[in-house]
Design brief:
With 354 residues, this protein is an alpha+beta fold. It has nine helices and 20 strands. A hairpin with a 2-residue loop joins strand 8 and strand 9. Bound molecules: flavin-adenine dinucleotide.
């Protein structure tokens, strides 16, 4: 059956915070051709949101605009060399299932990114990263449909403008480029990455037993750590880390270190700034576990806001703003949400944080 736009669609099942919000208009598409066919109708909406698994979104109110929900599936091997495998993966494939399938087929590199919720299409949008690996390292190009110009466009790696939890698709491209396929280059030769602190224990254990790390070790270890540390959104609604780790100048970091000797920070790879652990800032501010009504800061993970059954996303945003306010007054640092906040003018709201 041909897809059509429906109105006032409830988005509760399409966001892992499980808040109620409606989309003014909603379009689920099963093929890219449908985007071309429906282009004139799509163009009537100035505001557009492409939604995947909804695991990085907070609807703080209803969404005035068109939500597009792609249902594009398939994994295709496009090339193979002595060292590498080239895969073209459709946007709606489940991310973790893809990581697992790669491991089973001996396609290596992305095992550190196991168990991240969501879809393949969203992975390049915020350049997902975990345990010392960012996905950009394995992306050759991203095939998009331009919802503004009604045309197909391919961004090669450098055109994607990847940075820490950022890309061209997240910034100016938001609501404009619908990711249809991601082209990955994976390794046939295993090169496990164990440099990140939580994986050091794994490498020590293996060294003690005179064993070499394998991608399967890393995958299992990452899954175990994530299950221990992060609330499962199917059990306790959340959207992972709510805030990005902020960067500060080295001078500012020295001043903070004098005041807070245990502060956690590490050099930012892109420039001479220091990236500060936002979780530490929140924990040290005494906010871990803080609960207001049905929303809270997770008891083990200060970066994660959780929802015990609140239907209004604005209540989660209220708590996030309280955290931002407190962090600003205590450390002079403005936290920036990693989660995409919708249904409200966040810029206006941020002005309230003094
Ligand atoms: C428990 C938990 C743990 C998490 N851990 C991590 C982590 O370790 N590292 C990390 O980086 N993230 C993490 N996240 C955040 C989230 O899982 C990722 O950002 C994921 O890539 C979002 O995928 P999604 O399909 O749910 O995207 P959505 O939440 O639906 O959308 C996220 C963004 O991507 C855009 N988007 C989605 N699909 C497309 C598409 N096809 N075309 C164009 N734009 C699109 C949306 O418009 C939106 O801007 C975590 C989340 C949870 C709940």
């Amino acid at each position: 059956m041909a897809s059509k736009i429906v109105y006032n669609e409830n988005l509760q099942k399409l966001n892992t915070f499980k808040v109620e919000a409606s989309a003014e208009a909603f379009l689920a598409i099963n093929s890219i051709d449908e985007l071309e066919i429906l282009f004139s109708e799509i163009s009537k909406y100035n505001e557009k949101l492409v939604i995947g698994g909804g695991s990085n979104l907070l609807f703080a109110g209803d969404y005035s605009g068109l939500v597009i929900y792609p249902q594009l599936f398939g994994i295709e091997k496009t090339n193979e060399t002595q060292d590498n495998i080239y895969l073209r993966v459709a946007a709606s494939e489940n991310w973790h299932d893809f990581v697992t399938a790669c491991l089973k087929n001996n396609y290596f590199g992305i095992e550190n990114l196991a168990l991240i919720p969501g879809t393949v299409g969203a992975a390049p949008v915020q350049n997902i990263g975990a345990y010392g690996v960012e996905i950009e390292r394995f992306i050759e190009s991203v095939e998009c449909f331009d919802l503004q110009e009604n045309e197909h466009i391919i961004f090669n790696h450098s055109e994607c403008e990847f940075a820490y939890r950022e890309s061209r698709l997240k910034n100016a491209g938001q609501g404009r480029y619908l990711v249809c396929y991601v082209n990955f280059i994976l390794n046939k030769i295993a090169t496990p990455v164990l440099s990140y602190a939580p994986l050091k224990k794994l490498s020590e254990d293996l060294a003690r037993n005179q064993k070499e790390a394998t991608p399967k070790n890393v995958y299992d270890w990452v899954c175990k750590l994530r299950k221990e540390k992060l609330p499962d959104p199917f059990v306790l609604a959340n959207a992972g880390s709510f805030f990005k780790n902020p960067t500060v100048s080295s001078d500012k970091f020295v001043k903070l270190k004098n005041q807070f000797p245990n502060i956690v920070g590490y050099p930012d790879k892109s420039d001479e700034k220091i990236k500060v652990a936002a979780g530490w800032l929140i924990d040290n501010a005494g906010l871990k576990g803080k609960r207001v009504g049905n929303v809270a800061i997770h008891e083990q993970q200060a970066l994660v806001l959780v929802n015990f059954g609140e239907m209004q996303g604005s209540k989660i945003l209220d708590l996030a703003c309280d955290v931002m306010q407190k962090i600003k007054s205590l450390y002079g640092i403005v936290l920036e949400p990693e989660v995409r906040v919708l249904g409200i003018d966040l810029a206006e709201r941020s002005k309230l944080i003094k």
